[in-house]
Each structure stands twice: as structure tokens, then as C-alpha cells.
Amino acid sequence: MGLFHDLWISNVSVLEKIIRPILVYFFLLIALRLGGKRELGQMTGFDLVVLLMLSNAVQNAIIGDDNSVSGGLIGATALLITNYAVVRLAYRYPKIEHLVEGKSTLLVNNGRILHENLDREVITEAELRTNLRRQGFEDLADVKAAILETSGSLTVERQTADPENNYQREILDRLSRIESALYQQPHAQ
Fold first, then answer.
1. For residues 46 and 95, is the Cβ–Cβ distance under 8 A?
2. Any long-range contacts for 149-152 (C-beta under 8 Å, 24+ apart)?
3. Which Gene Ontology CC terms are recorded (predicted)?
4. Does residue 97 sit in the same domain as residue 145?
5. Which structural domain range is residue 117 located in?
6. Is 146 found in the same domain as 90?
7. Count of structural domains within the chain
């Protein structure tokens, strides 16, 4: 009888089991929002360690002294319902979505790195270039825009081939070859 009682019955009230996870949910939502997009997307080893330790640090805040199955189920249900409500509100009201999600950040514009935006997002140029290479962009000149999304992922838009620009480049290349050929010929006297 004692084992069954310990599995399902707790000394913590049901209301406390509901309020605790909701408070921790909103704390983490705000903390991760302030922490930046990097925590949510392409994490480094340091970021992963912080998130794992963070989950362990708030565990007792969510369940308190309750180790019962019912306490865990009630806490998990409160978290899921809270998340469902926040997602629905963010979907319905753009201001809430902007508050929760933030906005995307332009990191590269027309082949030029925007260092002030990298600094704001705490991303090194080496990390940016690594992510660009992963997506098949070796040369910054090929990047029209690289955007750090609110989810932490990087969206990269390729420069479109401008027919007028290609035509001008082709003419300049031909002139350069003609010029080289003229200078390489022996000068007739």
C-alpha cells in the first residue's frame, strides 16, 4: 500500500503543481528570448551545456518536493496547456508573436557582412562563414542576403544572375583578353 501511495499521492497541492510549471515556463521563455536566437538554433557545445544545466536547475522549481507520478503528469499537462495557449495567442496576435519570437536579423546584404548585426547576435564571422559553406556558399559575392531567423536557423538567398551585369562582365572580359593579346604581340616598327 505504501508504494502505491508514494507513486500517486503527494503532499503538494494540485494548485501548486499547476502554478509552478507555468511560472517556470514563462521565466524560461523570457530568459531564452533575452539570451538570443543562437540559444534556439544552431548551438555550439557551450550552448548545449547551458541548456542541459538549465533544465536540471529548474527541475525542482517545477515539481517541488513532489516525486509522485501524478505530480509529474499534472506538471507536464500544465506545461503543455500553457505552451498551447501561448502558441495560439502568438498566432492570433502579431504583437504577442513579435514579443515572444522577436524579429529576424540580416547578417549579410549583397555580399557584405553586417558586423554590427553579428555583434548584436553574438555570432563570429567564422561561425557565419561556416554556416554559409554548409549551405553551399563559398563566396560572399554569391550571397544576396543571409538572415538569422527567429528560430535560430540561417536562411540564405543567392544572388540572382543579372543578364545586364553578365553581359557587361563578358564584354569587359573580352576587352581584357584583347588587351592582353595586343601587349603580348611583338611591336612592329
1. no
2. 149/37, 149/41, 149/104, 150/37, 150/40, 150/101, 150/102, 150/103, 150/104, 151/37, 151/40, 151/41, 152/37, 152/38, 152/39, 152/40, 152/41, 152/42, 152/43
3. plasma membrane
4. no
5. 103-189
6. no
7. 2
Instruction: Tell me which DSSP letter residue 68 carries.
Output: S
Contact status, residue 39 vs residue 152, Cβ threshold 8 Å: yes
> Domain check: are 149 and 73 in the same one?
no
The residue type of 106 is L
CA atoms within 13 A on the CB side of 105: 23
Tell me: do 7 and 93 sit in the same domain: yes
Tens of pLDDT, residue by residue, the chain (189 residues): 566 666 667 777 888 888 988 998 898 888 877 776 654 455 666 667 777 778 877 887 887 777 778 888 888 899 899 999 998 998 899 898 888 888 889 999 999 999 999 998 888 899 899 989 988 898 898 999 999 988 788 899 998 766 566 677 788 888 888 887 887 766 555
The reply to whether 142 and 189 lie within a common domain is yes
HSE value, Cβ hemisphere, 13 Å, CA-based, for 30 = 6
pTM comes to 0.60
Element (H, E) at 148: strand 143-148
